[in-house]
Amino acid sequence: MRIRGLWKRFGEQVAVAGIDLDLPAGHFIGLVGPNGAGKTTTLSMITGLLRPDGGQVEVAGRDVWRDPMDVKSRIGVLPEGLRLFERLSGRELLTYLGRLRGLPAAEVDRRTDQLLDVLDLSAAQHKLVVDYSTGMRKKTGLAAALLHNPEVLFLDEPFEGVDPVSTQTIRTVLEHYTASGATVVFSSHVMELVESLCDWVAVIAAGRIRAHGPLAEVRGNAASLQAAFLELVGARGNPAGQQLDWLGGGAR
Ligand SMILES: Nc1ncnc2c1ncn2[C@@H]1O[C@H](COP(=O)(O)OP(=O)(O)OP(=O)(O)O)[C@@H](O)[C@H]1O
Question: pTM for the full model?
């Protein structure tokens, strides 16, 4: 992926302030940054969901905004605020999306069976999506993003609201996927997770890239990615507890 001069403004608010970034293929890439840093806005522009005010994005050598259909056929996306067709069962949803992707019915069936099984959703496959838990929805969204075997997978906060067992399942699926040479780009706030999964990271704050490169390089001499991150984004050194002097002790 090649990103040049990517820019997005919402009224007065500059969400993404001119990002230049090359993301290597075949890596497990983490996009990290504080709340409101511009991660979702950036991912939405890279995946053709939000039109940039300026700049270019190329995925697998194709311009996302000049050739959106081609790019969208090569990528899988688990967006933030995932919206699913609530009145379909999990199985119906995957079947529908697989057919929309142009896969033959028998192949959709085969892949759906396997994905439901691996993601531990087989027992709930005939339940309506509206009745799924948060973790089940994430896993269904992931299955939908993987169904057409994309070259690149973009995941916005894939582990949010997911229990440790499902987190492990998703990790295993993603590790299998990247081991075959595919690329995963995911955003997260959980530094331990990023550190244990990713081999390449980009740190974004206030709409700009603060650091990017192989994990070890970005971590540098810091004790952990978390410590490097706090330094890079200029975390304030004033513990909140000192300011909230009324909090605790039961006095009203
Ligand atoms: N549709 C919108 N309208 C107005 N402002 C927006 C919109 N989307 C994002 N923003 C603003 O752009 C900035 C970047 O938001 P974005 O959602 O990209 O951040 P983020 O890094 O994904 O944050 P978080 O980690 O909290 O999800 C924020 O200041 C946000 O308020």
Answer: 0.91
